[in-house]
Design goal:
The structure holds 2 protein chains of 2 kinds.
Chain A lengths: L1 H11 L4 H5 L6 H10 L6 H14 L12 H36 L3 H16 L2 H15 L23 H7 L3 H34 L2 H12 L4 H38 L5 H10 L3 H40 L1
Helix pairs in contact in A: 1-13, 5-6, 5-9, 5-11, 6-9, 7-9, 7-11, 8-9, 9-11, 10-11, 11-12, 11-13, 12-13
Chain B lengths: L1 H33 L8 E6 L14 H10 L4 E3 L6 E3 L2 E6 L5 E6 L13 H12 L13 H6 L3 E8 L2 E6 L6 H4 L10 H7 L13 E7 L3 E6 L12 E6 L3 H10 L4 E2 L4 H8 L4 E7 L2 E7 L9 H10 L2 H8 L4 E3 L22 H10 L8 E6 L9 H14 L4 E6 L1 H9 L5 E7 L6 H8 L18 H12 L3 H18 L2 E14 L2 E2 L15 E2 L5
Parallel strand pairs in B: 1-10, 1-11, 15-16, 15-17
Antiparallel strand pairs in B: 2-3, 4-5, 5-7, 6-7, 8-9, 9-10, 11-18, 12-18, 13-17, 13-18, 14-18, 19-20
Helix pairs in contact in B: 9-11, 14-15, 15-16
Chain lengths: 323, 539
Amino acid sequence: MASGSLFLAMKAIPEDPIELKFEKFPDLEQIASERERMGLNRSWLYQYGLFHLKFLTGNWERSLQTGRLATDDVKLFFPATLELSLIAMAIGIFFGSSAALFARVSPSRWSQNLAMSFGTIGLTVPIFWIGLLALVVGSLWLGIFPLGGRFDLAAIPPPDRTGFLLIDSLLAMDGRALGMTVRYLTLPALCLAVFPAANVSSVLYARLNEPEVNALYTALRARGFGSVRIVFRHLLRVAGAPVVTVIGTSIGALLGGAFLTETVFSWPGIGRYVVTAIIDRDLFVAQYLLLMLIMLVFGVAFLSDIVARWLDVVSDSQEGGKG
Amino acid sequence: MNRILGMRANDWLTRASISVLGFMGLALLAGCSGGGGSERSDVFVFARGSDAQKLDPADVDDGESVNTLTQICEGLVRFKSGTLEIEPCLAESYSISEDGMIYRFTLRPNVRFHDGTPVNAETALFSFHRQMDPEHPGHLKEASFSYWKYLYQDIEEVNAVGEMELEFKLSKPNASLLHSLAVFPASLLSPASLEAHGAAFQRHPVGTGPYIFLDWRPNQVIMLERNDDYWGEAPTFKRIAMTVVPDSTVRLLKLKTGEIHAMDGVQPAELAALQSDPKIQVFQEAGLNVGYLAFNMDNERMANREFREAVALAIDRETLAKVALKGAGRSASYPVPKGFLGYPDREEGIPLNVEKAREIVAAHPNWFLEPLEIQVMNAPRQYFPDPVTIATFIKGQLDAVGIPTKVVSSDFKAHLNNLRNGDFEAGLIGWMGDNGDSDNFLSVFFASWAAEKGTATNYSFYRSNEMDRLLLSGRVEADLEKRAVIYGDALRLWRKDLPILPLVHGDNIVVMQSGYEGFELQKIGELRLGWIKKSKPEE
């Protein structure tokens, strides 16, 4: 379904990508021969079938703009975004859940405000603004972090094995490259982490304050368990399921945020690549990549639902008996 | 069983978060202590907003690709720095036959491509034959060679007539060919590099220029290394990095902190502050471009000359250049930039005459019932650094004389598509010149053969036999003075028929840190970074 609507959407744009490829000197003959070479003069059904066949076999077309194979570009740009997003997700979950748990374990106005403000900031402040602010503070004032980029321009990156610079520099046992990677990664990751942190903290905080969870907490306290132990051994398990679902669904938002983060931090990722492809009417790249991203977002959401359900079953069978 | 699984899940979460944090902390320490390398001291870093698309001079049209290639490869002739005069480059000398049909170039001896291949007539042929001959192995099927058809269409044959002699045979005389041969699509590439790199040839340029292509990390940096065997004046920096910084605010921050040394794509609003900053030098001069308002003459009311005249008389272009360009350009009086063949000594152009515009409006009230729709792109171009502001300014001026106006903006490709297909009433658009010749502007704007719906560059769909005749005779006339007369006539005819209203010429702007010298802006906008060096500190 997704691929069908995507294909139709691409066909529905009023501009002809091949015509527009020739920005300065459009020429009928050249346009016709390009269209023929790419099979764009065949029937829509044929094109649609071919699009899927090529998508599934990984035999993707070349970008109209750069002439590189779209698959090569994915290998080039996707790991950069994935690395950034995963780290950001980890940081976001860590800070988000810490804030929520802290507010639950030692409920004071101060700690509760912290958990709430995480939510408010993360969900309302635009990410490019946070990014610029982080650059001004982290690079200009503190001078610790570079002003964007993924790796020092003049330095030689570790040999490319996985595309993930963290893993590549570990594999190469190159401490200097690792340090550089982390220095470049920190600010954009912190920025991108704000959104998942906000989501996780608000959902977890709300869940922890539900009556049944409260009752469980009071009961366990009454038995004389320490609050830290209760939180880590019992409450997290009970409250975990919705949090996992939220994490799964925020992948989409994370990829959306990746475009802005990548622009502000000059990060060579897939977000900027896809948006540029759409603006440039780079037909095949836009089609393939959007379909890939849609599948990714659905896949992760589906997976997180399964994990959440499993967590629910686990907690029911255990906490249900105890509580 | 469940209990064990449950334990694992929550242990894993705790451990993972602790280890991630610890790992980050450790690596950060390592980064801080090991970050003081001196790799950058001999690298000149130039930043722009996007990456090059391809590095094949015969198949690019984006400024980023061209600006990178300028350091790497050269043609037979080139523009003398800062001018539109032709001087020898890889050809030591040249001669043109009297009838203008044969061009002969004698190649410079002892020049080698970066891969060691000697430059001679045989190896030089490659770069031309691969563009002309569809059967040539270098005529890659994914390349479009679109410049060849436009700038070099009159070249019939290129032959080696001696070891170092190259001969171009034309099908008809072409007065701007020599200028076209100084433009990037005519650069020489090493034929051996096609064998070495195969299809990836378009991303591994091997030329003769002051810098050698070293490495390309897409959307990050293209690294170039000094060519120590360069035939001309030796380049200075060990390396040049052409890097991508998409956000213009961040780009400027980087320049101010010294992370980059020079950049383009500065926002006009920042210019005034930069010009008074002693740590920054601003290079700025009129570019070979024009931003104009195209009137779609296939449109019913637009077909009236008086309608177009009213619009033209009502727009104060001087103020437009000051207010909407914020100093990043100047007002245009003619469709070609100043100094072009045919540009009159005494400028007349189009006067500002609000009263006359009001009279026309009063005389034809029924023309102005519906608002005039002006279409505009929403992303900056060199001729329109802030297109929507320009459109809004024009709307204000037209509204004031009683021509109700509305502005519709869209992204560049969609805008271009509307213009090419004639789906508009009036449109803001522009042209960036290629070779500094009047034909390269006037034929694009006014030739009837460029007014085919779908592939038009004559967005006014202006068709005039008289204009066509002038344009064709200008192309074959070899005598400069006679050509100047022809293009002077063409400009007068433009003023009479007014298919387009020229508005502004956007400036070429490069911003650089102080303390560097040896850089000069080039008329056609190419970027020559090869001879930049650190200034000697003042005593």
